[in-house]
Amino acid sequence: MSYQYILTESLSDRRVGLIRINRPKELNALNRSVIEEIITALQGFEADAAIGAVVLTGNERAFAAGADIKEMAEATAVDMNNRDQFSRWDVIKRFKKPLIAAVSGFALGGGCELAMLCDLIVASDTAQFGQPEIKLGVIPGAGGTQRLTRAVGKALAMELILTGRFMTAEEAHAHGLINRIVPQELYLDEALKLASTIAAMPPVAVQLAKESVLQAHETHLQQGLLVERKNFYLLFATEDQKEGMSAFIEKRNPQWKGR
Ligand code: CAA
Fold it and tell me: Which one of 17, 27, 186, 221 has the lowest number of neighbouring Cβ atoms within 10 Å?
């Protein structure tokens, strides 16, 4: 598969897929084609049983500096409503395998929202996160007002969204937006390591764990608890559950079959 705006790799020995957004001159601004290409790549990785987790990254200067302002600047409200471009991002949200953002440099506007759509975020110490849409006369439109608020709390989300200021990786880490900060030369390696650790886990349990954690994040508690409980019981239908528990009792390493 050849793409115009992304590069992809299958790191089969690690069971990890890698997607790099590749519009360096535009700081990886997310036009609609970039999002479509990411979706296509994710669908390929989802169908590939040899891949257990995916890392999404940009380059050292930018993860992504937002939705493509030039693509939207002249649009009317009716154009935007008809285009409904952010509904396509829901397809990324529905990706079933763990998706890890490896962020260096700018993760702004839609770039921050795309990172927040991922399940884990590994950041370089140069990363900057923000929702600066207010400075363009708009507001976050791909989930920022909701996901940032849930991740960092109302006080900081309100400040970032109303002032448009960027936050450093350290501030993002202190407020729970990201999992870890590493020196710039290591951020991608660290994300790949994390992905391969997860990819070595039993795949069905990983998928249902992800779905269950997202319920905590995106629904009310009672509904989330019900999904978690259902998924827990359901995993007893898998060979991996039998293998995992037997291996524990027999003091040996489990062999996962993904079923
Ligand atoms: N869309 C389109 N082009 C962008 C872009 C974006 N979001 N961000 C940067 N670019 C382009 C610039 O226009 C510039 O192109 P030219 O060389 O053709 O002029 C190129 O990338 C390099 O950018 P700068 O010269 O501005 O680089 P800088 O180092 O001086 O500044 C920056 C970097 C602070 C990130 C600055 O580029 C910036 O503020 N970008 C916009 C950030 C932003 O507002 N993002 C939100 C977009 S709206 C959105 O995302 C809505 C949503 O909720 C989904």
Answer: 221
Q: Please check whether residues 218 and 124 belong to one and the same domain.
A: no
HSE-CB for 153 with a 13 A CA cutoff: 8
- 221 pLDDT above the threshold of 80: no
State yes or no: pLDDT of 245 exceeds 80: yes
Confidence (pLDDT) at 121: 98
For ligand 1, atom 16, the nearest C-alpha belongs to 26
pTM score:
0.95
**Cα Rg of the chain, angstroms:** 19
Q: Which of 113, 143, 157, 190 is catalytic?
A: 113
107 lines ligand 1 (CB under 6 A): no
Question: Is residue 223 in some structural domain?
Answer: yes
Could you confirm whether 113 is annotated as catalytic?
yes
Q: How far is the CA of 36 from the centre of ligand 1 (A)?
A: 20
Domain that holds residue 153: 6-199
Contact between 213 and 37 (Cβ < 8 Å) = no
